[in-house]
Amino acid sequence: MKLILIGYWDGPQTDRSWPSPEQFVDASWDTEERDFVAYYLQMGLIARSYMGFSRCRFCGKENGNLELSDGHFVWPDGLAHYVVEHAVRLPDRFVRHSFATIDSLESAARDVEWWRGISSANKH
Q: Whole-model pTM?
């Protein structure tokens, strides 16, 4: 399995081949869409934990020490900070993916029988 990295930036202690967050600033990005993407980023599962904290490339704030993932993409847990606080607009591919993932979860059929079977079997 290969996760797609997003939200890793160039900086004094990183590989200079990463993009700069300034390239992605878009103050005109629709606020509702931006907030949804930030929420999606915050819902990620912890994929890795690191000893030190990353710092925001704009304001210097300690910005987390985790990598989060949805099983398809992987990102630093501070990426939502960039989206909300600095108007960093993520690529459309990721935005579409986040909306499609939530849509598929919201519209998925629900199987209630398995859980009912578990709870009745464990009452003894």
A: 0.89
The domain segmentation of the chain, as residue ranges, is 4-121
Q: What are the C-alpha distances in Å from 109 to residues 15, 72, 103, 106, 119?
A: 44, 22, 12, 9, 20
pLDDT band at residue 120 under the 50/70/90 scheme:
low
Q: Where are the beta strands (DSSP E) in 1-124?
A: 4-5, 45-49, 66-69, 73-76
pLDDT at 123: 62
- Packed helices 79-86 and 31-42: angle between N→C axes, nearest 10 degrees: 160
Are the C-beta atoms of residues 54 and 30 closer than 8 Å to each other?
no
In DSSP terms, 45 is beta-bridged to: 69
Distance from C-alpha of 43 to C-alpha of 93, rounded to nearest angstrom: 18
